[in-house]
Specification:
Metal-dep_hydrolase_composite; TIM Barrel; 9-stranded mixed beta sheet; about 20% strand; binds zinc ion; Urease, subunit C, domain 1; hydrolase activity, acting on carbon-nitrogen (but not peptide) bonds; Amidohydro-rel; Metal_Hydrolase; alpha/beta; Amidohydrolase
Length: about 475
């Protein structure tokens, strides 16, 4: 029977297979076989699979590394066209300078085009699953649906939420925000690869009524939640002032939000009670080390969270606060940040970081029954790294080689649900150049509509690149 189906079977071969299956996380000279329907048939020694699937298409020459597609646990696809600005700003300043002006005019088409651009970047970085929170202030435009459109076009697996926040001047009534959640859930209801969560941009950003209605909607529909918690120190101070001494984590528990399935970005500024709440409520954490460093937000207590049994995945965070969607950068930063913070080279290991970037991330999103590890019966989200590259020519230790040596340039092939998305280092089903040209034109248009001339040279203005004053202010501050 296997011979009859062999022609429709793909066998991916590597010098190493990092299956992330606890039963055998690492296989030397291994292979993964999956069928045309996208189901993994077998993971095992290459010699064994070669015999068993003798007529199959074989990809990989036995020098590379096969791993599950990366799970990017946290991003904002609404930021796909506003990258590389605001480097001297911390979170709240950066939001005012870059994200808010763009968010006021962002359309569904902006987000669709930006999602395709960043989707291409993610696929070429070995990412197969992405957890998105699309945030904007152009209510009525249903801009967050553009992320759904773009992910479906790119063939990525993912979850999209609308990161609602309504505490700002001129915000419409709560009904309008709830309507966008509903519209996004409807848009995604029949998509096989992209699911929905209810988004809450920040706890401090929503009115009591919107919070109450959001919690009620989760109870009614069984929706999971995607939010940010304890990202910056000033969030804790502001929250204690506003919510009778409660932190945002404590307030989330107080209003019942944490009684639902929650993944929260960051969780940096956690006190002991916050940590115990995250563990007791089984809140998953999306750690985005690059964004945390760019915005000078702080250091997530990753080892402590994991010791407490909290599920911790790795995210790139949005393209405006990373400022790319490169998973290798996020993975390496996740290791480096803990080492330098604790001044201990053994603060975290490459194998732990790889678990967070794959199976633990899938667990954080509730997708670990389908993806996150290479196991027969799971879906075929597979990334092959090319061993014939300067970075991977000599693999002394496969875990460290991926975390510290590999870059996106090493990504040779990517399959999502068994479908080829990257082949020989190029997008398999899309023209990258067309996506880039479309993205560039849309970014110029958005920058002009958002009047981003103070930050962006794309509008024809000087941005912050030319004035001498902008350069001087960054010299000798500390
Ligand atoms: Zn975020």
């Amino acid at each position: 029977m296997e011979a009859a189906n062999a022609a429709a079977t793909t066998v991916v071969r590597g010098a190493w297979v990092l299956s992330m299956d606890p039963a055998r996380e690492l296989l030397r000279d291994g292979a993964v076989a999956f069928d045309a329907g996208g189901e993994i048939l077998a993971v095992g020694p290459w010699e064994e699979l070669r015999e068993r699937f003798s007529g199959a298409e074989v990809v990989g020459d036995g020098n590379g590394i096969v791993l599950p597609g990366f799970v990017n646990c946290h991003t904002h696809l609404t930021e796909g066209l506003i990258t590389g600005m605001g480097e001297t700003a911390s979170l709240w300043e950066w939001f005012d300078r870059v994200v808010e002006p763009a968010g006021r005019v962002t359309t569904r088409e902006d987000v669709r085009v930006g999602t395709k651009l960043k989707g291409a970047e993610m696929l070429l970085s070995g990412i197969t699953t992405v957890n998105d929170m699309s945030c904007h202030r152009n209510l009525g435009s249903l801009a967050s649906l553009g992320a759904a459109d773009g992910l479906v076009e790119m063939g990525l697996r993912g979850i999209v939420s609308f990161g609602a926040e309504n505490l700002y001047d001129g915000a419409p009534g709560e009904d309008v925000f709830m309507a966008e959640h509903e519209a996004l859930a409807d848009r995604l209801s029949s998509e096989p690869l992209v699911g929905f969560r209810l988004g809450i941009g920040t706890i401090l950003g929503v009115s009591d009524e919107l919070m109450t209605r959001s919690v009620a909607a989760c109870a009614e529909h069984g929706w999971g939640v995607h939010t940010h918690l304890a990202e910056v120190r000033e969030e804790v101070t502001e929250s204690r002032h506003r919510y009778a001494g409660r932190t945002t984590i404590e307030h989330s528990a107080h209003v019942g939000l944490l009684d639902h399935e929650v993944i929260a970005g960051h969780c940096i500024w956690c006190g002991e009670h916050d940590l115990s709440l995250l563990a007791a409520k089984d809140v998953a954490v999306a750690h985005s080390p690059v964004a945390n460093m760019i915005l000078a937000s702080g250091v997530c207590p990753v080892p402590r969270l994991r010791r407490e049994g909290v599920r911790v995945g790795i995210g790139t965070d949005g393209a405006a606060s990373n400022d790319n969607q490169d998973m290798f950068g996020a993975v390496k930063a996740a290791a480096l940040l803990q080492k330098v913070h604790h001044l201990r080279a053994d603060a975290i290991t490459a194998i732990d970081v790889m678990r967070m970037a794959t199976i633990e991330g899938a667990r954080a999103l509730g997708l670990d029954r389908e993806v996150g590890s290479l196991v027969a019966g799971k879906r075929a989200d597979v990334t092959l790294l090319d061993g014939n590259t300067p970075e991977l020519a000599a693999i002394h230790d496969p875990w460290q080689q991926v975390v510290y040596c590999a870059t996106s340039r090493c990504v040779s092939h990517v399959w999502v649900d068994g479908a080829p998305r990257v082949a020989d280092g190029r997008l398999a089903q899309q023209e990258l150049r067309e996506i880039v040209v479309e993205g560039r034109e849309q970014a110029i248009d958005l920058a002009e509509r958002a009047a981003l001339g103070g930050e962006s040279v794309l509008t024809g203005g000087e941005g912050r690149a030319f004035p001498a004053s902008a350069r001087e202010e960054t010299v000798g501050v500390v």
